[in-house]
Write a structure and sequence with these properties.
By secondary structure, this protein is of the alpha/beta class. 30% of the residues lie in helices and 12% in strands. The protein has a seven-stranded mixed sheet with strand order 1-2-3-4-5-6-7. The chain has a two-stranded antiparallel ribbon with strand order 8-9.
């Protein structure tokens, strides 16, 4: 049945060879399976929405795919079926049966051109922090579930999935290294205790055996501490010009040096 529909589509659009086929509309045809579409090497736009498809195993060599509409099907898992489609910029997976959020974002993680993504009306949408998870793992997505991804959401996702780096960045903004996210340290802590805990933190490891600070954080911290520039110059307002030197009888004051430091 699907093969007949495909032939009907190619004839209707006037395609003479498989290499001419750039788009196929197979939506709302009650399809449960789709034949291998690898022969259409230049296929870029494919509509398979509102069918009964449960597996995506027919796009093995369609690397030029730009828009793929699989919404309204019976997909439970897409692992290993879409990750090679790195040219995709629009992907519709809404209204399916996808349950594993981590497996889904892992499959789509290599799609650096992906701009529009729909995952709503899937069970995975109920996962706590669903939207932040997708935004963090798929940073190229600009429109998620019909809503624009905002800068605030990106920052929240970064803080949620990078708490240690967030703490480092925030603490460096105040000229010191802290052990936790800004605002979480009790206010009544002496400076001596802080310096002691800082030295201990910088030279020891966590209980699980990992370094408390990553190498990148240490380099960033050291660079911040040493990135001081000092300029010394004359106060030229007090340097007399040659005409004043000849006209003045009293000796001139020794010019002062001005020193300025920049961090």
């Amino acid at each position: 049945m699907a093969a007949m529909i495909i032939e009907e589509q190619t004839q209707k659009r006037g395609y003479k060879t498989d290499g001419d086929v750039s788009e196929l509309y197979l939506g709302r045809r009650g399809l449960k399976e789709v034949p291998d579409l690898s022969r259409f090497r230049l296929l870029k736009y494919l509509w398979l929405n509102h069918n009964k498809i449960s597996k995506v195993n027919f796009l093995g060599n369609n690397f030029r795919m730009a828009e793929l509409y699989l919404n309204g099907n019976k997909l439970c898992d897409i692992t290993g079926s879409l990750k090679h489609l790195t040219s995709l910029h629009t992907l519709m997976l809404n209204d399916n049966r996808l349950t594993d959020l981590q497996a889904t974002v892992k499959e789509l993680k290599g799609m650096t051109n992906l701009r529009v993504l729909n995952l709503f009306q899937n069970p995975l949408e109920q996962d706590p922090g669903y939207r932040h998870c997708v935004i963090h793992h798929l940073p190229s997505v600009q429109l998620l579930d019909r809503e624009h991804v905002t800068q605030k959401e990106k920052e929240e996702a970064f803080q949620l999935y990078n708490p240690h780096r967030t703490a480092v960045i925030q603490s460096l903004g105040f000229g010191r290294r802290t052990d936790s996210v800004l605002g979480s340290r009790p206010a009544a802590q002496s400076s001596t205790a802080h310096r002691s805990s800082k030295r201990h933190h910088d030279t020891t490891s966590n209980s699980d055996g990992t370094d408390a600070m990553t190498l990148e954080d240490k380099v960033l911290l050291r660079g911040y501490q040493r990135s001081i520039m000092q300029f010394t110059m004359f106060d030229w307002n007090k340097i007399p010009v040659s005409r004043l030197k000849r006209s003045e009888e009293k000796s001139m004051e020794t010019p002062q040096l001005l020193t300025v430091e920049f961090r």
